[in-house]
């Protein structure tokens, strides 16, 4: 009986915003519906404690939402306290289901949950599957630029517990490379990409464009613009585009996170125009992503393989051009280049000059009636 039961643990479940939780619901439902497993998905909510069950021909999916408060991500002490309290509460909620299950699949969010589940599993002996959506504490080290003594200790302990994980699910080849660097064998690594969390394509109806966008090339950044995402390259280029260029491209900032705040503050200080809107509900996301003229994705060099911006899947499926500011070693570059090379525009981090030129080219193409004309622009860059 236990072999047919799996506990799936993640962070924020819908309707709370969180890409990991959105994908976890999709995968958990797939395991229950298609493989006939009895899956218990345990995640976080900003609302009340709830439990619901979906029944399929063979399997079932029970979703348990554990209420936790929000916290100030800008304060390290608050992040640490929240992580300790949340991981403890999440494990306590999942434990009754774990005892009956044969396998536990947990994600990289919330951070460092490995340090709760792996020690307990020494006693329980369950099969551990780590869907390593984010690497911690490597992300904290990359954010700082170096490891403090505390982070070095946490990393040493993290590597110890990772050796006791049975299987790693990775989102991309870049993550598999990072695991290989710390001695994880290929036999323990499975590539399982995130799909687009929404159905989207050329036939998806767009939303109404925001006001004051007439005659503008609308460049959308949607979702989370956080600590792993480069801001300086684009901000410098965008300001230059308005001060010395045509000023035809208009940034649409439909995003949250530290990076989004940084971008907004810089553009406000420079007194250049942009649009900022609240995140749309999930059922409107597909239409949102079909609304602009192109998408923007960014990633800092230090975070290659530690995070993979999940927005890339829907952006690629949207059938619109994509500008990626980041390293070519990232699977963002691999996916975009393989699936839409003719309407994909890459910029190295720090190359604001090329980014400015692309903005000028985008602006010059804003009256084009098809992506084909954008392809002609790309060939001249």
Uncertain segments of ≥5 residues (pLDDT<50)?
369-373, 376-381
CATH names the topology of the largest domain as Rossmann fold
Backbone shape: globular
Number of strands: 14
CATH class of the largest domain: Alpha Beta
Number of helices: 13
Q: Strand arrangement, largest sheet?
A: 3-4-2-1-5-6-7-8
Calculate the mean pLDDT score and round it.
92
SSE string: EHEEEHEHEHHEHEEHEHEHEHEHEHH
What's the CATH H-level homologous superfamily of the largest domain? Glycogen Phosphorylase B
Biggest β-sheet strands, sense, barrel: 8 strands, mixed
Whole-number tally of structural domains: 2
Percentage of β-strand residues: 15-25%
- C-alpha end-to-end distance: 60 Å
> What's the Cα radius of gyration?
22 Å
* Helix content range: 40-55%
CATH architecture annotation name of the largest domain: 3-Layer(aba) Sandwich
> Class by helix and strand content?
alpha/beta
């Amino acid at each position: 009986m236990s072999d047919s039961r799996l506990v799936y643990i993640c962070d924020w479940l819908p309707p709370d915003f969180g890409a990991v939780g959105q994908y976890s619901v999709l995968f958990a439902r797939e395991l229950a519906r298609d493989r006939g497993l009895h899956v218990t998905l345990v995640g976080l909510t900003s609302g009340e404690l709830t439990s619901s069950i979906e029944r399929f021909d063979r399997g079932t999916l029970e979703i348990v939402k554990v209420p936790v408060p929000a916290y100030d991500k800008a304060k390290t002490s608050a992040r640490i306290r929240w992580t300790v309290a949340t991981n403890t509460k999440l494990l306590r909620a999942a434990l009754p289901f774990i005892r009956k299950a044969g396998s536990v699949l947990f994600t990289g969010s919330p951070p460092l949950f490995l340090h709760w589940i792996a020690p307990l599993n020494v006693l329980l002996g369950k099969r551990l599957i780590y869907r390593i959506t984010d690497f911690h504490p490597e992300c904290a080290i990359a954010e700082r630029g170096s490891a403090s003594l505390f982070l070095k200790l946490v990393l040493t302990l993290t590597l110890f517990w990772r050796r006791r994980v049975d299987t790693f699910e990775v989102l991309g080849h870049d993550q598999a490379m990072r695991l290989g660097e710390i001695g994880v064998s290929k036999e323990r690594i499975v590539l399982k990409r995130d799909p687009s969390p929404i159905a989207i394509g050329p036939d998806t109806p767009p939303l109404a464009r925001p006001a004051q966008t007439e005659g503008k090339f609308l460049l959308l950044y949607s979702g989370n613009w956080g600590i792993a995402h480069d801001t300086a390259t684009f901000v410098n280029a965008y300001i230059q585009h308005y001060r010395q260029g045509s000023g035809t491209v208009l940034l649409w900032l439909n995003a949250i996170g530290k990076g989004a705040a940084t971008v907004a503050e810089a553009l406000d200080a420079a007194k250049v125009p942009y649009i900022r809107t609240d995140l749309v509900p999930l059922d409107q996301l597909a239409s949102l992503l079909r609304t602009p003229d192109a998408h923007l994705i960014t990633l800092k060099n230090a975070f290659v393989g530690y995070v993979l911006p999940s927005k890339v899947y829907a952006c690629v499926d949207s059938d619109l051009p994509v500008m990626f500011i980041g390293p070519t070693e990232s699977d963002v570059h691999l996916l975009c280049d393989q699936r839409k090379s003719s309407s994909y525009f890459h910029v190295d981090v720090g190359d604001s000059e090329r980014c400015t030129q692309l903005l000028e080219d985008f602006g010059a193409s804003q009256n084009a009636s098809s992506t084909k004309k954008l392809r002609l622009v790309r060939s001249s860059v």
